[in-house]
């Protein structure tokens, strides 16, 4: 599949935003990295807000679609949580720049994009919370506060891209197996 100029701009901008942060990157910086004039960027993209929205909405949709698939499966709550962890790992490996933007720069979104992302995040967390509660009710998960469980798992998964970057590439299958084990069974 041929990458479009717009996709190339978004990709280059994503790397710059990951390195410097959304506020520190200008359209001029993106143009320099693309080896083109800043004015030429506007032939392909409306501005930084469109880039940020594209990065964040795309990855939020990946999470939403993953959750929809998991919810549709006939599986135990524990199995669904394992799948959620695995999906987070896959998305992190495949979309690390998007994850960085989602985690660090979502608050810079404006208008409909911000509303959409906040709604997707809330729905995702509510679905995850309901899976945890079901697991507690069924006796598969210890009767701990669902918010603590949700926070513990999501905090780890949301920062995986940082850890993975510092640690270097790790076999995804090992990462999935060990992370699922630690997050679900603990270390004892």
UniProtKB/TrEMBL annotation:
<dbReference type="InterPro" id="IPR050624">
    <property type="entry name" value="HTH-type_Tx_Regulator"/>
</dbReference>
<dbReference type="InterPro" id="IPR036271">
    <property type="entry name" value="Tet_transcr_reg_TetR-rel_C_sf"/>
</dbReference>
<feature type="DNA-binding region" description="H-T-H motif">
    <location>
        <begin position="26"/>
        <end position="45"/>
    </location>
</feature>
<dbReference type="Pfam" id="PF17932">
    <property type="entry name" value="TetR_C_24"/>
</dbReference>
<dbReference type="InterPro" id="IPR009057">
    <property type="entry name" value="Homeodomain-like_sf"/>
</dbReference>
<dbReference type="Pfam" id="PF00440">
    <property type="entry name" value="TetR_N"/>
</dbReference>
<feature type="domain" description="HTH tetR-type">
    <location>
        <begin position="3"/>
        <end position="63"/>
    </location>
</feature>
<dbReference type="InterPro" id="IPR041490">
    <property type="entry name" value="KstR2_TetR_C"/>
</dbReference>
<protein>
    <submittedName>
        <fullName>TetR/AcrR family transcriptional regulator</fullName>
    </submittedName>
</protein>
<keyword id="KW-0238">DNA-binding</keyword>
<dbReference type="InterPro" id="IPR001647">
    <property type="entry name" value="HTH_TetR"/>
</dbReference>
